[in-house]
C-alpha cells in the first residue's frame, strides 16, 4: 500500500515535466502538480465532511458547498492540462481562478457569513504563497508581478467587498468589524509583506547556493573527466605492464627450460657413452668372426662385457626418459596424487650437471604418501628453489667442505600438511630483503642474472595449491619451507 501511494505521488508530481528540463524549472513544475493534487485531496475530503454534516443536521446544499465541487473540477482540469504539457496554463488557473472561485464569486453572489470577515483575509494570504512557489521570476517576471499585485489587491479590497455584499442581517457584525477594520488591514498587509519578503529572501539564498553547488558540480565533473582520462591511461599502462609481466614470466620459464635442457644433455651423454663403448666392443667381436679368427673364451667374455655396457646405457637412458616424462604434460593441467619425493629426484637428476662435485647433498624423504598436486607445476617450484640454492651456495664464502644442500620431505600430522624443506649454506636473508622476497621483479642478483620472477612464480604456484611458502634463517644458511594440503 505504501509503495502504491508513493508511485501515485511520484506519477502525479511529474505530469508534463520533461526529463531534459533544467533542475530549477522542473522543481517549479513538480510543485505546481503537487499543489494541484493536494488541493484536490483537500476539497474531496471537505466535500465528504460537508455531505455528512448536511445529512446529520438536515441542511440543504448551499453556494458555499457548491464551490467545493467547482474547485474539485478545476483541480482535475489543471491536472489534465499538466498531463498534456500545458503547465503554464495550469499555473495561471491555480493562481487566479482558485481564489476567484473560493472567495470572490461566493462573496459577489452574497454568500457572506460572520466567519468570512475573519478567515477570508487569512485564506488570501495563504493562497498568495502559490506564485512564489510555482513561478520563477527570471523565467516570467511579468506573470510573477501581476500575480503578487492580484493577491495584494484582493487582500486590500476583500473586507470592503464583504461589507458591501453582506446580507442585511450582518449589519451588527459589519459595525463591529468596521471598528477594527484599519488595525486588521495593517496587520494583514504586514503579514503579507513579511511572508513574501521572507520567501523571496530564502529563494535568493537558495538560488545563490544552488549556483555555488552547480559550479562545484561542474568542477567535480571536470575533475571526474580528468580522473577518467587518468584511469584510461592507467588501464593502458596496466595492460602494457601485464603484457610485459607475461613476457618476463615466459622468459623465466624458458630460462628454467634451458636449465632443464642442459641437464638432460649432460645426463643423456653418460648412457650414450656406455652404448657407444659397448657397440664398439660388439662390432670388434663381429669383425673377428667374419675374418675367421678362432674365438676363445676371453673374446666371448669381452663381447659379453660390451653387451652389458649397451644394456646399462639403455637402462640409464630409459630412467632419464621416465624422469623427463614427469615434466611433460598435454592440455590443461590437472591435479593428481603424485609422489613428491620422485618429483624432487627427477628435478635433481637434471640439475646434477650444474652442481659442483664437492657439494654435499643431504636428502631425507620422510613423506610416504602421495600428495594431490599439479605435478608439472611442482617441478617448477622444486627447480626454482634448487636453482636459487645452487646460486647462493656459489656466492657464499667459506670452505667448500662446509657448504651443503639439504632437501627434506615429511608430513605434519597436527596440521595435516605435507612439507618440503630446501636448505642451503648460502647468505642469510635480512628483514628488508625478506619482506620483498616473493614480490614480482624483486631480485638480489646482478642485472642479467635474474628477472626477479623465480620466487614470485613459486609463491603463486604454492598458493594455487592452497599451501604456503616461507623462509627461515639458520645458523649457517637459509631454509625454504613449502607446506601443501594433504589428504
Question: Which oligomeric form is depicted?
Answer: single chain
Structural class computed from helices and strand pairing = alpha+beta
Describe the largest sheet: 5 strands, mixed
Radius of gyration from CA coordinates: 50 Å
Percent helix range: 55-70%
Placed side by side, the strands forming the largest sheet appear as: 2-4-5-7-6
Structural domain tally: 3
- Helix and strand pattern: HHHHHHHHHHEHEEHEEHHEE
pLDDT < 50 runs, ≥5 residues: none
Terminal residue distance: 57 Å
Provide a brief overview of the structure:
The chain has 487 residues and is of the alpha+beta class.
What does this structure look like?
This protein has helices at residues 2-13, 23-57, 63-83, 87-108, 116-127, 130-134, 141-165, 171-179, 181-290, 297-325, 340-351, 375-395, 431-436, 454-464; strands at 336-338, 360-365, 371-373, 404-412, 417-424, 468-473, 478-485. With 487 residues, it is an alpha+beta fold. The chain has three domains: 2-179, no CATH class; 249-325; 336-485, Histidine kinase-like ATPase, C-terminal domain (Heat Shock Protein 90, 2-Layer Sandwich), CATH 3.30.565. A five-stranded mixed β-sheet has the order 2-4-5-7-6, covered by helices on one side. Strands 1-3 form a two-stranded antiparallel ribbon. A hairpin with a 4-residue loop joins strand 6 and strand 7 (478-485). Helix 3 (63-83) runs antiparallel to helix 4 and helix 11 (340-351) packs across helix 12. The mean pLDDT is 80.
Amino acid at each position: 500500500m505504501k509503495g502504491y501511494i508513493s508511485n501515485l505521488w511520484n506519477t502525479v508530481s511529474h505530469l508534463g515535466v520533461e526529463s531534459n528540463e533544467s533542475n530549477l524549472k522542473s522543481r517549479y513544475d513538480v510543485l505546481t502538480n503537487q499543489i494541484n493534487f493536494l488541493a484536490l485531496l483537500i476539497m474531496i475530503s471537505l466535500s465528504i465532511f460537508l455531505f455528512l454534516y448536511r445529512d446529520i443536521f438536515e441542511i440543504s446544499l448551499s453556494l458555499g458547498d457548491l464551490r467545493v465541487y467547482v474547485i474539485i473540477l478545476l483541480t482535475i482540469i489543471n491536472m489534465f492540462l499538466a498531463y498534456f504539457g500545458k503547465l503554464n496554463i495550469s499555473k495561471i488557473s491555480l493562481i487566479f481562478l482558485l481564489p476567484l472561485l473560493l472567495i470572490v464569486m461566493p462573496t459577489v453572489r452574497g454568500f457572506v457569513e460572520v466567519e468570512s470577515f475573519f478567515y477570508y483575509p487569512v485564506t488570501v494570504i495563504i493562497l498568495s504563497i502559490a506564485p512564489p512557489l510555482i513561478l520563477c521570476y527570471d523565467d516570467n517576471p511579468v506573470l510573477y508581478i501581476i500575480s503578487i499585485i492580484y493577491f495584494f489587491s484582493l487582500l486590500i479590497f476583500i473586507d470592503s467587498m464583504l461589507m458591501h455584499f453582506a446580507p442585511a442581517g450582518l449589519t451588527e457584525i459589519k459595525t463591529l468589524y468596521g471598528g477594527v477594520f484599519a488595525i486588521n488591514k495593517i496587520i494583514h498587509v504586514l503579514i503579507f509583506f513579511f511572508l513574501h519578503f521572507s520567501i523571496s529572501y530564502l529563494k535568493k539564498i537558495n538560488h545563490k547556493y544552488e549556483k555555488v553547488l552547480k559550479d562545484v558540480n561542474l568542477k567535480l565533473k571536470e575533475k571526474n573527466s580528468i580522473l577518467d582520462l587518468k584511469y584510461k591511461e592507467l588501464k593502458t599502462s596496466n595492460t602494457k605492464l601485464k603484457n610485459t609481466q607475461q613476457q618476463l614470466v615466459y622468459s623465466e620459464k624458458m630460462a628454467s627450460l634451458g636449465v632443464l635442457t642442459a641437464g638432460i644433455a649432460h645426463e643423456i651423454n653418460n648412457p650414450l657413452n656406455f652404448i657407444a663403448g659397448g657397440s664398439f666392443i660388439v662390432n670388434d667381436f663381429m669383425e673377428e668372426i667374419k675374418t675367421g679368427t678362432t674365438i676363445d673364451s676371453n673374446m666371448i667374455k669381452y663381447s659379453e662385457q660390451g653387451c652389458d655396457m649397451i644394456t646399462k646405457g639403455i637402462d640409464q637412458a630409459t630412467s632419464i626418459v621416465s624422469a623427463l616424462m614427469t615434466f611433460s604434460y598435454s592440455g590443461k593441467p590437472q591435479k593428481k596424487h603424485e609422489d613428491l619425493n620422485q618429483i624432487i629426484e627427477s628435478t635433481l637428476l637434471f640439475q646434477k650437471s650444474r652442481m659442483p662435485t664437492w657439494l654435499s647433498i643431504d636428502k631425507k624423504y620422510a613423506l610416504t604418501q602421495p600428495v594431490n598436486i599439479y605435478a608439472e607445476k611442482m617441478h617448477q617450484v622444486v627447480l626454482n628453489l634448487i636453482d636459487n640454492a645452487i646460486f647462493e651456495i656459489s656466492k657464499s664464502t667459506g670452505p667448500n667442505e662446509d657448504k651443503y644442500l639439504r632437501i627434506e620431505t615429511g608430513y605434519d600430522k597436527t596440521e595435516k600438511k605435507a612439507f618440503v624443506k630446501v636448505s642451503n649454506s648460502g647468505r642469510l636473508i635480512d628483514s628488508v630483503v625478506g619482506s620483498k622476497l616473493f614480490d614480482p621483479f624483486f631480485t638480489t642478483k646482478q642485472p642479467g642474472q635474474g628477472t626477479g620472477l623465480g620466487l614470485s612464480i613459486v609463491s603463486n604456484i604454492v598458493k594455487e595449491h592452497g599451501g604456503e611458502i616461507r623462509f627461515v634463517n639458520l645458523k649457517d644458511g637459509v631454509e625454504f619451507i613449502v607446506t601443501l594440503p594433504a589428504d
